[in-house]
Specification:
The complex is a heterodimer. Chain A has helices at 2-47, 56-76, 91-94, 98-101, 103-106, 119-136, 156-171, 177-180, 191-196, 208-212, 219-240. By secondary structure, chain A is mainly α. Chain A has a domain at 38-76. Chain B has helices spanning 2-6, 56-59, 77-85, 94-98, 360-364, 411-416; strands at residues 66-73, 109-114, 120-125, 129-135, 149-156, 161-163, 168-170, 176-179, 187-192, 197-210, 234-250, 258-263, 269-274, 277-282, 290-294, 307-312, 319-324, 329-333, 345-347, 368-371, 377-381, 385-390, 399-402, 426-428, 434-438, 443-448, 454-458, 475-476, 486-487, 499-502, 508-513, 516-522. The chains are: A mainly alpha, B mainly beta. Chain A: Keywords: Cell cycle, Cell division. Chain A: It comes from Callithrix jacchus (White-tufted-ear marmoset). Chain A: It holds the Pfam family SERTA.
C-alpha cells in the first residue's frame, strides 16, 4: 500500500515535473552558464593583480560584466543574501561594488574600501543556485561539463574560496593562489586553462547558449521557485527508490 | 593603370573595373579636380573637401595584388653590437636580420609608424627599443629593390622602471610612436611607454672635427706644456653615423597608463591620453602640461568607462576626438573651455538588441580611432568590426565592415583566454579609399570603401618568399571546407596582427607579426 501510494504520487509528480523540467532546462543551463561566467570574471579580476600595474580598461570591462550578471540575477531573484543579519541592508548594497572586485587594481588610487561588505553577499549567488545544480546534475548530460562532483550540501567549499579571494585582494599575496582553488573541484574552474590562456580550438557547448539567449526575463523566475521545492522532493524520492 | 593590367593575375579585380591611365608612381601629378586655392598641403591625395580624391582608384587597392618586399626582424642586443661595427656600410640590409629565428619577448613589436614622407618607418617593441628603417634609395640599376627598407637607427628609448611608492613595475614597452613633420635635416619622433613620453632627435653625422689643440686624435688630453703651435680644428668627412638623442622627457603627468599620443597640426603641441585623463603638452615645456579631459569619477567605485584612444584633427588644431570602452567617441573643441569634459559631438551607434549578450559591452569597446587624412571621417575599431563615421553624423557610422564575424559565436572562449581584450589598430591609406586592420592567425584585412570589396591576407614566414605574391585567405565558417580555406577552429589566436601602418602616399604597408615586420607593396612593374 505504501508502495502503491508512492507510485501514484511518484507518477503524478513526474508527469507534472516533466513539463516544468523542460521549461527549467533552458533556464537552468542558462543560469549555470551565467554562473560560470560570473566565476570566471571574478577569477580574472583577482588574477589581474600582478607585479605590473593591471590593465585598467580590462578590469573595468570585466567588472561591468560582473555587475551586469549581478543585476540580472537580482532581477531573477536568484541573488539572495542567506544570512539573516544582512536582511536589514538596502538591496543596492548587495551588488558587490566594483571597488571591492577591483580592489587590487585600484587601491593604489586611494579608493577607500567599502565598509564591511559581509560574506553573506558573496554566498548569495552560489548557495541559491546550488539546489538547482545538484538536482539538475544527474539529468542533463549536455551540461555535464558543469557537473559538480559532489552535491553541494556544504556550500562552504565554494563560498569560502570567494571569501579568500577578497582576502587575497586585501593582503596582496598572490602566493596563496594555489591553495585558494584547491577545494574547488568543479571542472570548469580549470585554472591552468585560465592562466595559460587557452589557444585555438573553440570550446563549444557551455557558452553557446549563453550568447544565444537574451538575458532572462523575470517571467520564469516565479515558477522557478515553486518548482525548485517540488524538484527537491522528486530527487529525494528518486534517491530513495 | 598600365602597371596593373599588364602583369600577373589579379584574383579580386573584376574584369570590368575601369582604371585610370595614370599610375600611382606618378604621384606628383596633381589631379585637375583640386581647388586652386592653394590649400593643398595634403598633397595630391585628397581634395580639401574631403571627398575621395580622383586618384583614389589608383590607390584603392583592396583588390590589388600585394607582394612581400622584405621581412625584417627587430635586432636584438647581439646584432646591435655587430651593427655598430659595420656602421659605415649602411647596407646593413635585411640579409643578416632575416635569418635569425630567435625571438625573445622583448622583441615583440608594439607599434609601427611611417613618417610623413614615408621615407622612414619606426617600430617600437616590448623591450623599450625603437628601430627606424629607411627606404632604399631608387637607383636605375637596382629598380627591383625599390621599396625595401633597411635599418637606419636603433636606440633604447625607455628602460624598465620601478615605482617604489606603489611597488609596481613600469613596463618599458613602447606603446606609441608618432613622428613630427620634418623641419630641418634631423628627424624628430615622440615615443611613449605607460608613463613617460620622450622626444627623440635622430640626426646624421658625416663630418667630425679634427685637429684639436688640447686633445689628440684618440681624445686623450695633451699636456699644455708640450703645445708649441696652435691650429684651427677642421671638419673632415667621416663614415656616416646616425645618432639618436633624447631632447625632451615629459614625465610624471600620468597616473594611469598612456594609450595614445597625437601631434597637433600646429606642430607646437601634442596630447597624451591615459585611461582617465588627457594632457596637452607644449614641446618646449616638460615640467608642465594642461589637463584637457578628465573622466575620473570622484568615487572610483563608480568607474565604468575609460578612455581607450585619442587623436587630434589633422587640420584643425583645436579639435580632437577620444574613444571609450563603451563604444562611444567624443569630439571636443578646445576653444569651448579649458577642461573639455563636455563634448562638442558624441558618436554612438544604438545597440542591436538581437545581438545582445553579456559580451556586448566588451566587444563594443573601441581599441583605436583614426581621423582620415581629409579630416572629414573618423574610423574606429572594436573587437569584431571597423566603422567609418562622418563627423557630421553622430547617430550612426556611415560604413561598417566585419573583420572576423565568425568569432561572434566564440566570444566566451575568447573571453576566457583574454583574447577578447586584444586591442587591434586600424589605418587609412593615403587617399582614404582603403582601410586596413589586423586579425588572428597573422591575417590582416583590407576594405576598399569605393568598391566595397575586401581581402584577407596573411603575414607568415611560410609564404614569405621575397617578391612572392600574397594569396588571399579565406576562413570557412562551417559546412564544407574548400581546399585553401582554413576553419575557424584551426585559427591560431596567439598570432595576432595588432599593429599595421600604411605609407602616406604609396601602396606600401608595414605589418607587425610578433617580432617580425613585414613590408608589402602593391605590385608594380
Amino acid at each position: 500500500m505504501f508502495t502503491r501510494g508512492l507510485k501514484r504520487k511518484c507518477v503524478g509528480h513526474e508527469e507534472d515535473m516533466e513539463g516544468a523540467l523542460a521549461g527549467l532546462k533552458t533556464v537552468s543551463s542558462y543560469s549555470l552558464q551565467r554562473q560560470s561566467l560570473l566565476d570566471m570574471s571574478l577569477v580574472k579580476l583577482q588574477l589581474c593583480h600582478m607585479l605590473v600595474e593591471p590593465n585598467l580598461c580590462r578590469s573595468v570591462l570585466i567588472a561591468n560584466t560582473v555587475r551586469q550578471i549581478q543585476e540580472e540575477m537580482t532581477q531573477d531573484g536568484t541573488w539572495r543574501s542567506v544570512t539573516p543579519q544582512e536582511a536589514g541592508r538596502a538591496p543596492l548594497d548587495r551588488l558587490v561594488s566594483t571597488e571591492i572586485l577591483c580592489r587590487s587594481a585600484w587601491e593604489q588610487e586611494g579608493a577607500r574600501p567599502a565598509p564591511g561588505l559581509g560574506d553573506g553577499h558573496v554566498q548569495g549567488p552560489v548557495s541559491d543556485l546550488c539546489p538547482v545544480t545538484s538536482a539538475q546534475a544527474p539529468r542533463h548530460p549536455q551540461s555535464g561539463i558543469w557537473e559538480l562532483d559532489s552535491p553541494r550540501e556544504d556550500r562552504g567549499g565554494f563560498h569560502k574560496s570567494l571569501d579568500q579571494i577578497f582576502e587575497t585582494l586585501e593582503t596582496k599575496n598572490p602566493g596563496c593562489m594555489e591553495e585558494l582553488f584547491s577545494d574547488v573541484d568543479s571542472p570548469y574552474y580549470d585554472l591552468d586553462t585560465v592562466l595559460t590562456g587557452m589557444v585555438g580550438g573553440a570550446r563549444p557547448g557551455p557558452c553557446e547558449g549563453l550568447e544565444g539567449l537574451a538575458p532572462a526575463t523575470p517571467g520564469p523566475s516565479s515558477s522557478c521557485k515553486s518548482d525548485l521545492g517540488e524538484l527537491d522532493h522528486v530527487v529525494e524520492i528518486l534517491v530513495e527508490t | 593603370m598600365k602597371c596593373f593590367s599588364r602583369y600577373l593575375p589579379y584574383i579580386f579585380r573584376p574584369a570590368n573595373t575601369i582604371l585610370s591611365s595614370s599610375c600611382h608612381t606618378e604621384a606628383n601629378v596633381l589631379p585637375s579636380g583640386l581647388l586652386p586655392s592653394g590649400q593643398n598641403k595634403l598633397g595630391p591625395w585628397c581634395s580639401p573637401t574631403g571627398s575621395p580624391a580622383p586618384l583614389s582608384c589608383e590607390t584603392g587597392c583592396g583588390e590589388g595584388s600585394w607582394i612581400l618586399v622584405c621581412r625584417l626582424l627587430v635586432p636584438t642586443q647581439v646584432s646591435l653590437l655587430s651593427m655598430e661595427e659595420d656602421i659605415d656600410t649602411r647596407k646593413i640590409n635585411n640579409s643578416f636580420l632575416r635569418d635569425h629565428s630567435y625571438a625573445t619577448e622583448a622583441d615583440i613589436i608594439s607599434t609601427v609608424e611611417f613618417n610623413h614622407t614615408g621615407e622612414l618607418l619606426a617600430t617600437g617593441d616590448k623591450g623599450g627599443r625603437v628601430v627606424i628603417f629607411q627606404r632604399e634609395q631608387e637607383s636605375k640599376n637596382q629598380i627591383h629593390r625599390r621599396g625595401e627598407y633597411n635599418v637606419y637607427s636603433t636606440f633604447q628609448s625607455h628602460e624598465p622602471e620601478f615605482d617604489y611608492l606603489k611597488s609596481l613595475e613600469i613596463e618599458e614597452k613602447i606603446n606609441k610612436i608618432r613622428w613630427l613633420p620634418q623641419q630641418n635635416a634631423a628627424y624628430f619622433l615622440l615615443s611613449t611607454n605607460d608613463k613617460t613620453v620622450k622626444l627623440w632627435k635622430v640626426s646624421e653625422r658625416d663630418k667630425r672635427p679634427e685637429g684639436y689643440n688640447l686633445k689628440d686624435e684618440e681624445g686623450r688630453l695633451r699636456d699644455p706644456a708640450t703645445i708649441t703651435t696652435l691650429r684651427v680644428p677642421v671638419l673632415r668627412p667621416m663614415d656616416l653615423m646616425v645618432e639618436a638623442t633624447p631632447r625632451r622627457v615629459f614625465a610624471n603627468a600620468h597616473t594611469y597608463h598612456i594609450n595614445s599620443i597625437s601631434v597637433n597640426s600646429d606642430y607646437e603641441t601634442y596630447m597624451s591620453a591615459d585611461d582617465l585623463r588627457i594632457n596637452l603638452w607644449n614641446f618646449e615645456i616638460t615640467n608642465q602640461s594642461f589637463n584637457i579631459v578628465d573622466i575620473k569619477p570622484a568615487n572610483m567605485e563608480e568607474l565604468t568607462e575609460v578612455i581607450t584612444a585619442a587623436e587630434f584633427h589633422p587640420h584643425h588644431c583645436n579639435t580632437f576626438v577620444y574613444s571609450s570602452s563603451k563604444g562611444t567617441i567624443r569630439l571636443c573643441d578646445m576653444r569651448a573651455s579649458a577642461l573639455c569634459d563636455r563634448h562638442t559631438k558624441f558618436f554612438e551607434e544604438p545597440e542591436d538588441p538581437s545581438n545582445r549578450s553579456f559580451f556586448s559591452e566588451i566587444i563594443s569597446s573601441i581599441s583605436d580611432v583614426k581621423f582620415s587624412h581629409s579630416g572629414r571621417y573618423i574610423m574606429t575599431r572594436d573587437y569584431l568590426t571597423v566603422k567609418v563615421w562622418d563627423l557630421n553624423m553622430e547617430n550612426r557610422p556611415i560604413e561598417t565592415y566585419q573583420v572576423h564575424d565568425y568569432l561572434r559565436s566564440k566570444l566566451c572562449s575568447l573571453y576566457e583566454n583574454d583574447c577578447i581584450f586584444d586591442k587591434f589598430e586600424c589605418v587609412w591609406n593615403g587617399s582614404d579609399s582603403v582601410i586596413m586592420t589586423g586579425s588572428y592567425n597573422n591575417f590582416f584585412r583590407m576594405f576598399d570603401r569605393n568598391t566595397k570589396r575586401d581581402v584577407t591576407l596573411e603575414a607568415s614566414r611560410e609564404n614569405s618568399k621575397p617578391r612572392a605574391i600574397l594569396k588571399p585567405r579565406k576562413v570557412c565558417v562551417g559546412g564544407k571546407r574548400r581546399k585553401d580555406e582554413i576553419s575557424v577552429d584551426s585559427l591560431d589566436f596567439s598570432k595576432k596582427i595588432l599593429h599595421t601602418a600604411w605609407h602616406p602616399s604609396e601602396n606600401i604597408i608595414a605589418v607587425a607579426a610578433t617580432n617580425n615586420l613585414y613590408i608589402f607593396q602593391d605590385k608594380v612593374n
